[in-house]
Predict the structure.
Amino acid sequence: MKIPPTTATIAVALTIGAIGFLVGRLSGPSPSGTTAGTRETQLSRTRGSSRDADASSHVSSLAKRTARPEGGHSGSATAEEKLKRLEAIMRGDNALDRNRALLAYIDQLAPGDFEAAIARFRGLGITDSRFSEYAMLLTAWSQADPLAALAYATANTRGGFATKTILSSWAATDPDAAIRWAEANHTGTGANPYLAGIIGTLGATDPARASALLTGMPRSNERGEALDAMLPHVLAQGNDAARAWISALTDDSLRNGSMERAATQLAQTDPKGTADWLLANPGDATKRRLDDVLGIWASTNPTAALAYYEALPKGEERSNALRGVVAALANQDVGAAAKLIDSHAGDVTDGAIASFVWHSFGSDPALALNYIGRLSDPGSQDRMYSRTLDTWLSRDATSAQAWLQKNNNSGNVQRYLQSKAAQGQQ
């Protein structure tokens, strides 16, 4: 059964926010803000970008940092003492205190200090819970010596997070050099895995160039990552501009992927315009997202969404629209959603029934279960009975048992009870 997605387009990764913040911190005197991160392999697939400082201010920062002596401003502290200080910072419980202390620590580092600091950080075994701090260290190193940072990342890390973070930051100060490195270090005939981070940065600073890099990539997971990095900047331009950018894409797969990712976010502020756009550009994105858009619309204006659905001609798109309206109504008024299904039986598909059951089960499990028998496929009926009854029994065994006894003459219920009995004998 399909669950409508959240309002976010993409699981936009927050760590690039840390990159933008730290690059701004390195180029100006006023520190501000912190960010949070997620696991390295997850962040290597999903990237967002927010830029807090323009590229021109970074060059002087990089020159200042590179000019520091190897000891930085840390006085007579030995290398091991500095690493122990980093360890103490990272083991702190308060995230705000950690970030403040880490910024001060980074300001003390010379270019030659970063490799040991990163190695010590990773050796602590707490990287999973300290990704924003990890991103800050990597970003600072990329500003001091991007080639050394990339050499270390490619030799010692997996998952792509470190290299993407470094390239994202480098692209803010010297996009030409970052692109040259990405092209020179990519091997094979597939898509370049190093471009996603660069595209994420250029989406804010040079969207035309970011678009050219994205559209030049072959269809692949890597292009999907790059698209995820690009779309937040496209969407930030407003609904009309975002739809125009996506509609202008000449690659059908890239255009459909962009529409599918963007539709739910566009629908938050313009559900009718988004539905019209999907219907005017039929394809996989329309099949997969029209119900989501109508569901978002119906959650705030069910009358308008219902009228829109009823005005559609008979066919798959009308049925998909009904599924979305049903899902939204089931969350608000189970009885109204049931009446809608009953009065529009010609448009009801298995998807609409499954969506109704899923969204109504929490408030009226008995009513939801009564609709499972309307599924056309017996196997789907059995699976949904099993899922819903198992859940109900775990939540309210007394009520569920009473319903089972009342409906034990149903073939589906009999099969469910026999299956549970067989499991108990194993």
Observations:
- The chain has 25 helices and no strands.
